[in-house]
Amino acid sequence: MCASATTRRLQPSAPEEPPPFRVVVTPYRALSVPQYLALAGLSLTLAMTIQIPLARAGAWPCLLFGFGEIGLLLGAIWLHRRSQDRTETITLTGGSLQVVRCVRGRVLDSRRLPVFGSHVVWVDDPDYGCQVIAIQSRGRRIEIARDLSPDERPSLADALTAALGEAGGSPRLHVETRRSLNQHLDR
Q1: Smallest Cα–Cα separation from 160: which of 145, 176, 141?
Q2: What's the N-to-C CA distance of the chain in angstroms?
Q3: CB proximity list for 92: less than 8 A, separation 6 or greater
Q4: How far apart are CA 18 and CA 48, in angstroms?
Q5: Cβ atoms 63, 54 nearer than 8 A
Q6: pTM
Q7: 52 near 62, Cβ under 8 Å?
Q8: Do 22 and 92 contact (CB within 8 A), yes or no?
Q9: Residue 135 needs a FRET pair 20 to 30 A away by CA distance; which of 73, 93, 124, 180 works?
Q10: Which CATH architecture has domain 21-27+86-177?
Q11: Can you tell me the distance from the alpha carbon of 88 to that of 27, in angstroms, rounded to the nearest whole number?
Q12: What tens-digit pLDDT sequence spans the chain (187 residues)?
């Protein structure tokens, strides 16, 4: 181990200044872990109240199918919840904009763009609202905030545009509008 690395460890580190803009985007989760466990308990209780009288009457195959269906339902909900365990962090620091995507705690993708020359692109659909927000710089385009709803994306686009302007970048918001699906009905 080199001496400079040892001396750095011994010196107290100064508290880091928070970045001027940092957003963590996560998918919407309808059920927390306690709510999932409550759903599982309620489903099993309901299944038992129905299946036990059938088993006493001699219809034991109904027991297998009933609990099998409940197991499949709870397993599907749990797998869906596990697939939603991802984050996207958008950070603006020191003249660069970084987008880091993580899945289950592991970094899946990390991209960095310079602040100078970057601008926010908002793809608007007349029928469904804001469909895409992207950051574009020098021919590179990174789509961000995929897990936000169309109603939430405009506020992120406005905040990111303002933060780019404060950091010395181009405070420009470019709006692209797609053609309406109902255009033939308007005639």
Answers
A1: 145
A2: 76
A3: 19, 20, 21, 22, 98, 115, 160, 163, 164, 167
A4: 53
A5: yes
A6: 0.68
A7: no
A8: yes
A9: 180
A10: Roll (2.30)
A11: 9
A12: 333 333 344 455 555 677 788 999 988 877 788 888 898 889 888 888 888 888 888 888 888 888 888 889 888 888 888 877 889 999 998 788 899 999 888 998 999 999 888 889 988 888 888 888 999 988 899 999 888 888 899 999 999 999 888 887 777 888 888 877 776 555 5
Joined tokens for residue 127: 């029928």
Dihedral sign from CA coordinates of 64, 67, 73, 76 = negative
CA dihedral sign of residues 120, 101, 167, 137: negative
Tokens representing 170 are 């181009």
Structure-block tokens of residue 85: 């365990």
